[in-house]
Amino acid sequence: MVQTLDDDFLVKLIELSIDEDAGRLGDITSQALIDEFATSTFVLRSRESGVLSGSQVVNKVVSIIDDSLKVSWMKSDGDDLVPQDNIATISGNLRAILQSERVVLNFLSHLSGVATQTRMYVDKLHDSGSKTVLRDTRKTTPGFRSLEKAAVRHGGAQNHRMGLYDAFLIKDNHLSSVSIEEAIKKCRKFDETISIEVEVDSIEQLKQVSLLGPDLILLDNFDVSQVRQAIELVPEAKFEVSGGVNLENIVEYALTNVDFIAVGALTHSVKSLDIGLDAI
What we know:
The chain is α/β, with parallel strands linked by helices. It folds into two domains: 7-117 and 270-279, Aldehyde Oxidoreductase, domain 3, CATH 3.90.1170; 122-268, Alpha-Beta Barrel (TIM Barrel), CATH 3.20.20.70. It is built from ten helices and twelve strands. The strands form three sheets. It has a six-stranded parallel beta sheet with strand order 6-11-10-9-8-7. Strands 3-5-1-12 form a four-stranded antiparallel beta sheet, covered by helices on one side. Strands 2-4 form a two-stranded antiparallel ribbon. Helix 7 links the parallel strand 8 (196-200) and strand 9. It is elongated.
């Protein structure tokens, strides 16, 4: 499910970030050194190769700090970047530009890092010739989920469920108080229009679950040989692999042609892309 970030939520997130940086007194260095009416133009510039994500947030940060500032984009979300690429310019009141700098770069660098890492995985899948689709997980930074999941899409992958509210995913902890048969029946009764995914952690559990007709079966921490065995055992089922997949072994998993691979590292283990704000 693809969901755009609620504008009110985005404003609250950005305002929190601005308050965290500016505090009660604001940018005291700029206040001390720069005339309040001084104007300038700065450029957002990549310092390494990657994939851009976060333009929506940058626009909102700048407008909240000073709605007279003008942002002009030379690149779009999802575009490839190389070192020294000019991404966008920010023009207007110099104090306001400098106040926005760190908040803008924190969002833009992190989200571009998510998109960049995602693209690395997607390229591996593409080069393998596999039909497997890459998806993310809920292992996201609190408050950043919709932004990070948008960045995953900008990197070329798909989103798994957005939260606990838009798909059933029956895990082992749910089964501590209810049988798998009863769990699926209860989910169908709760809302028959919502897809049901069931996590299994062994071939024996797979045999039981496959007879119950879930929409998707999650193979949790299966190695490649076990994934092949599962697909051969229940060829009509749709499968997702999760756990233990990384850049080094994703091609091995993908060559099984499993339907989906979910990788938490797309969002939880990301290096921010190096982007700077430079005076022109």
